[in-house]
């Protein structure tokens, strides 16, 4: 992707299979748009989503490659277990200003056909990396 193209990416929809659209997204980063963070879920003034599963994305453009790190943190009072029907643990869709899909992570990929689980204890965090 060109630097100008990444600026056009206004919506980065993180669709963790188990969260499906948790909260609203907000983006912050450098003025040139080369790095940033996208958050999901309700955030209090202290910077975390108390009582919810908090999600956010860090990203960094290096040349024509954008590297994403997807974070998930258990901010609830209970251990949370997520069950997946396949080896796929996350998906994302990048859209342009017109809302047209530019890229979907899972498109054209194959995942193991095995049920899996991820368990997060209270305040535990997990991260996944992807490149576009």
Polypeptide structure, described:
The protein has a 5-stranded antiparallel β-sheet, with no helix packed on it. Strands 1-7-8 form a 3-stranded antiparallel β-sheet, with no helix packed on it. It has 132 residues and is mostly beta strands. The chain has 1 helix and 10 strands, in the order H-E-E-E-E-E-E-E-E-E-E. Residues 1-34 and 41-46 have low confidence and may be disordered. Helix content is 5%, strand content 45%.
Biggest sheet, open or closed, and with what strands and sense? 5 strands, antiparallel
Q: How are the strands ordered across the major sheet?
A: 2-3-4-5-10
- Helices, by number, come to 1
Q: Which range does the strand content fall in?
A: 35-45%
**Low-pLDDT ranges:** 1-34, 41-46
**Shape type:** globular
Structural class: mainly beta
- For the secondary structure, the number of strands is 10
In angstroms, what is the radius of gyration? 15 Å
Separation of termini?
8 Å
**What is the average of the pLDDT values?**
74
Instruction: Spell the H/E element sequence.
Output: HEEEEEEEEEE
Task: Tell me roughly what share of residues is in helical segments.
Answer: under 10%
């Amino acid at each position: 992707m060109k630097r100008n193209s990444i600026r056009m990416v206004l919506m980065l929809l993180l669709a963790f299979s188990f969260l499906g659209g948790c909260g609203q997204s907000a983006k912050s980063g450098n003025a040139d748009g080369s790095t940033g963070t996208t958050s999901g879920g309700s955030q209090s003034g202290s910077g975390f989503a108390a009582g919810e599963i908090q999600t956010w994305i860090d990203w960094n453009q290096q040349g024509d490659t954008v590297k994403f790190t997807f974070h998930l943190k258990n901010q609830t009072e209970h251990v949370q277990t997520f069950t997946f029907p396949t080896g796929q643990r996350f998906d994302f869709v990048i859209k342009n200003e017109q809302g047209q899909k530019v890229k979907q992570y899972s498109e054209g990929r194959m995942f193991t056909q095995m049920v899996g689980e991820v368990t997060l204890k209270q305040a535990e965090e997990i991260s996944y990396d992807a490149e576009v």
